[in-house]
Design goal:
With about 200 residues, the protein is mostly helical. It is built from 8 helices and no strands. It has a single domain, classed as Serine Threonine Protein Phosphatase 5, Tetratricopeptide repeat, CATH 1.25.40. It is elongated, with a radius of gyration of 38 Å.
Length: about 200
Amino acid sequence: MSDNNQSSKLSQKGQKKPFPKKYLFIIIGFVAVGIVLLIFWYLNFYLKDRELLRQETEALAQMQVETEKATKSQEVYFQAVEKVESGDYASGQVILDTAVASTNDSIEQAWIYIQKASIALNANQFEDAYNFAKEAEELDPSVSSARLLAAAVEAKGNKVEALENYQLSLSRINGDSELDELDREEVRGYIRLLQS
């Protein structure tokens, strides 16, 4: 009987026990959760990529529009300058008046008024230069609008107001580039001249 017992124990050792079903369900559960998490991660990554692509596409389209506006603005400015240089100051200003009327964008309008002030200043039309620079300042205060206001009032003989506007212009130069530093130095030069 001991031989039978031993052979039955040996045959039981050689047989594999069936894998418990509860472990199988646990493993299948982990695999399913892993697959769901992988799908979620992929979709999240894919959707973020699509959103970034959409944002980049919109930004590029906006840049193209801005570039086209700037090019058109330069063309209009040069047309106006040509008129003024040929002795027709009024026609040059009318070209820019038309440009102002063609846009509802206050920043673009301010830029056109800066162009109008610059042309007026170069044509020794100091009162016009002051009024156009003031309009630009009201629409979109900038380094350029303050500097043109200063130049116009200085040309009209008001050194105190010119100094205030040059200082305002200087306070608006907030970059650290070499060009910004050159702008600062130029405005400081105007201020030193007025203070002497």
